[in-house]
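Honest question from a wet-lab person: if I give you the sequences of every part of a complex, can you actually get the arrangement of the whole thing, not just the pieces? Trying it with mine:
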Amino acid sequence: MSDTAIKIENLRKQYKLGAIGGQTLNAELQSWWARVRGKEDPNMKIGQSAEHFGESFWALDGINLEIKKGEAVGIIGGNGAGKSTLLKILSRVTAPTEGDIWIDGRIASMLEVGTGFHGELTGRENIYMNGAILGMTRKEVDEKIESIIDFSECRQFIDTPVKRYSSGMYVKLAFAVASHLDAEIMVMDEVLAVGDMKFQKKCLGKMGDEAKGGKTVLYVSHNMATIRNLCTRCIVLEKGKMIFDGDVEKAIDIYMNSHSSDLKTEYDLSTFKRVSADLGRKARFKSISILDRGMARFRTDEKMLLDFKWTAHENIDNVLIDLSLKYADGSAVGYTDCRTMLKDYSAGDYETKLEYDISNLAEGIYIAYFHLSEINESNELRDLDQADQIFFEIVNDSMEKTNWQRQYWGSVRLPQLREV
Amino acid sequence: MEQYTTHIKAKTGWFDIDLKELFRYKDLIWLFFKRNYTTIYKQTILGPLWLIFKPLISVLLYAFVFGNLAGLSTSGVPQFVFYLCSNALWTFFATSLTQTSSTFTANAAIMGKVYFPRLVMPISSVLTGMLDLGIQLAMLVIAIAYYSFNGYNFGLGWSLLLVPVLIFQAGLFGLGCGIIIASLTTKYRDLVVLVGFGVQLWMYATPVVYTTEIIPRKYLSVYMLNAMTPIIECFRSVLLGTKTLAWHYWGLSWIVTLIVLTLGVLLFSKIEKTFMDTV
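Yes, you can. This is the full assembly:
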């Protein structure tokens, strides 16, 4: 018996870019026939050279890792760093392209709660169903069902079809099943901490117990606080490679300062193509930079400093910069502007520094749309120029704030309620 | 590396299906089977009664269209029993095939999140079809009893023991065809559309609503390559006492069944590990 729970050797996973399958059989036969005759592929886009077609990228590129029994390992990294791919391979949802993984012990992967839940089945039936999908036998579920029902706080509705459950009850029940899995190795995604505040605390507590109770835990999260709380070791992934493995604090530090192409801080807008010819005619953004950091990633308690360079091509009255903010999925978050800069500008180059207080934004990735606008005589705001798609990320780094449930709470932390 | 219980590796061999593991997941097969049933008939007026009405309506329709209007021969067997018998086995085969063929695409959501032996799904689909078949066979038994009581001789005998064998073969063949299509549909979506249509055409290429008597002798050996033909013919011969040449082709039908099944399982085991990347 060795004390190694998981051993990963030179793990690589390749995904093909462009047309993955997606083609019809007929198209594929045509392409194949063209290749056989050495002709050009009729299904290739014009201008697309043969070398680029079917280009692939490595979602995981040479991961070597050994995890000891009883270790709780956190995995962090930006979007597309390969975290989910690694979890998928470990939970055998997909197979690696190269490399080997040896696992000692039963592995329970929880990439999602409520897999296989069916709305027409009752809570109790779904417990059996979900349990079996996660690899429990009927006997095991029989033994644990009472404890699962208690944990879920849904005893009253346990014989009601789950389609009549509130979304909160649904996830509670689902987590209750997942958390009763009896495996030596747990692979968990952060989405698991679900439900209302109180239940989240309970979930995290349960995960913590598993980690401290000698189980091997692999935990992926964007929430630095829970990583700190749960893990004894932490891995940072970047572009499919492991860039750090070791101490949790150090890992978090590296992650916060690691580069990500989406979160750049310099935007050159002088040559950027505007959506309409009207934009940028009277006045034009030249560049926008986010100051004081290598990448646009912020802790909740930080402030964003922005530097705008812009040109007024003629004399303009009442100019200001405004911001409409969207969440990464495109849903609108809010709007604000800078009234203090409101004055008349003569033709010339200007530099404006703005401070934006982000402390009330919940964690996640945001897209900022800045506009250079004028207020005309009839008090209407008219865009002179716009700078779209300035990405930044907010990272939760405080112990008090648990996982933010965006689907229920939106993206803004409202001011604290105060007793009076 | 013997101390490790699981080895995840890149290359998949041609036969990589762990039957022992499949057996460990028997509870899941059973639960999927139960789920398929309970969910179809929840919130319906007739509930499980549909299991009786559906075949009854098809059989009456067959008897009217093919028996009365088209005047196709049923080898002297009462039309109702003839069509009931053919329809039972054919529906079993057809549902096994169609249900299995959508395994990957219909369950991508579950399979993308958790591992279990992928063969669990097609197997439970075939079992689901088995219940339909059971009910239709019960109806058939009642019908046979009724006609025998009224003086028709079905010539039942020891050959009845072949009934489970024929059903088993139809199930295997349906499973085999289904998993071949399932493996291909992960890449080529147009096959999904083809399946429903194809099965319908296939029914007319198989002696479900007619008998092989109407097939010219010289085409018979080609016609019998369709493994379902001997299966249905023999099934009727055993239960209804019809005479058929199909017995000579039963061995051939088994060979086709096994080839298709092997091919299916091979393709399936090749694809099941990475289908999430292409589906």
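Two things worth pointing out. The first strand of chain B starts at residue 6 and ends at 9. Chain B has a mean pLDDT of 85.
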